[in-house]
Amino acid sequence: MTTESQDVEERELPPPSGPPPVNNVWVYNGKAYDLSDWISKHPGGEFFIGRTKNRDITSIIGSYHKDPDKIARMIERYALGRDALPEDIHPKANAPDFLFKEGFDSWRDTPKYRFDDKNDLLHAVKARLKEPELAARIKRMDRIFDITVAILAVAYFAVQGLRLVQPGWMPLPVFVIAMVLLRSSLAGFGHYAIHRAQKGWNKICVNAFDLNYVALSFVTADGHALLHHPHTQSEVDIKKNVFTMMVQVPRLFRVPVHTVHKFGHTVTGMIMRLLDVCRLTRKVGIKDMYGTWSGALPHFIGSFGVRILLVAELVAFTLAGDFWAWALQFVLTLWISTFLVVASHDFEVDTEELHSDTEDWGVNQLEQAYDLTVVGNRYVDCFLSAGLSSHRVHHVLPFQRSGFANIATEDVVREEAARFGVEWQAPKSFFTDRFPKQIKTYLLQPSVDAQEKNWGFWREHFAPSSLKTCAVYTVQGFTGIGTV
Question: Distances from the Cα of 147 to the Cαs of 141, 154, 174, 288, 402, in angstroms?
């Protein structure tokens, strides 16, 4: 997330079900490695190594590094001198069982791609990135992106401060629209911060992903960056499953119940979930998760800090007698952002229907992702769409540091894709294409019980079990259980 979902019995980060492997093993290209000593040395941050223990990291290394061959040579010093075995791989990728479909097995269901074909799409694109003029432009666009984010952060606090101090100067409609746009924009920055090296200040900045009330970056960084991106639209891609919990709730009650559920997440639930992460980290051991406490603390400080900020904003507006201004921007931000997050893939389509025959990882990524447009300007849409305006480039080059860098690279990826026979589709409009389909998928379809038991409209909404589902779902939000 990385992150992300839907268990009615347990929190999102309990010890995963099933017997965990006992060995410190990472699998790369079918071989077993022990990277324990590399956790605290990894230039990309401790998190990415510590979290992938007992997983197949072939696609992660191949997609997130400019020169995977160099990485392969480097980790040879940690080779165990044997082929990987099924018991080396945690059956649920060291993640909670409920994130995956029933029967999922990581050893069997993790897609196997080769990244050693020098003639594939990814190698062709990476070769173009080395061109001095393009490399310089990418660095320049990264700087412009970061400067824009700094301006947006100042505006974020200024808009709220002005509404609290001089509400007449910040009318309610202006305030609500500004907050929806700013929260989505800063969450877009958090999206790219997840893909950057988890080092230094970025460990704190990455939590900007939480500002739109949808996710908890501390845990979704795993589900998004390490499970979704390398294995898009496969059974490993937990992003397909994490937004469907609301479909348990009957249609007419879905919007209000889910809204209160997420309000509960905001005020208490996410903090409780963070405490779960603290307990899990203590149980697993700081060395296996982060290498050292100095590597862990910035992640914890940043994540708790943003959660406290969100609660403090609610308290400030309530004490100022302006609770409904806060509530209105909360509801609009929550729902628009929820649909934006799932707008760039066909998550409403079953995995089997999206099967691709290609063995070229880069081609597969282009086939499974959409570019998104909101107002029609890619640079503005980069923020309004939470970073998804140049989304296909982002999926081919997930290591790039900003949405502006992706825009700068788009011509190269399009040109190389044409050489591989991949059609470059026009961006899809969020409002006219994706949003109507998502309304049908997430809000208008009958509840899970109604579909499975063939209930009519009345029973779907007023059967005792349906009312109980609504009550339980509401309470779960306040206890940190449920969707991301």
Answer: 10, 11, 24, 35, 12
pTM of the model: 0.89
Is the pLDDT score of 255 beyond 90? yes
Given a contact cutoff of 8 angstroms between Cβ atoms, the answer to whether 261 and 470 are in contact is: no
**How many CB atoms are closer than 10 A to CB 278?**
14
Q: Which helix (H) or strand (E) holds 429?
A: strand 428-429
Q: Which amino acid is at 159?
A: V
Residue type at 415 in one-letter notation: E
Q: Given this model, what pLDDT does residue 8 score?
A: 32
- The Cβ-side half-sphere exposure at 28, using a 13 Å CA radius, reads 26
**Dist CA 76 CA 335 (whole Å):** 47
CA gap 5, 224 in Å, rounded: 13
Q: How far apart are CA 35 and CA 81, in angstroms?
A: 13
Cβ neighbourhood burial of 14 (10 Å; 0-12, 13-18, 19+): middle
Phi first, then psi: what are they for 32, rounded to 5°?
A: -100, 135
- Asked if 368 and 111 touch (Cβ cutoff 8 Å), the reply is no
Residue written as token pair 């223990």:
53
Whether the predicted pLDDT of 150 surpasses 90: yes
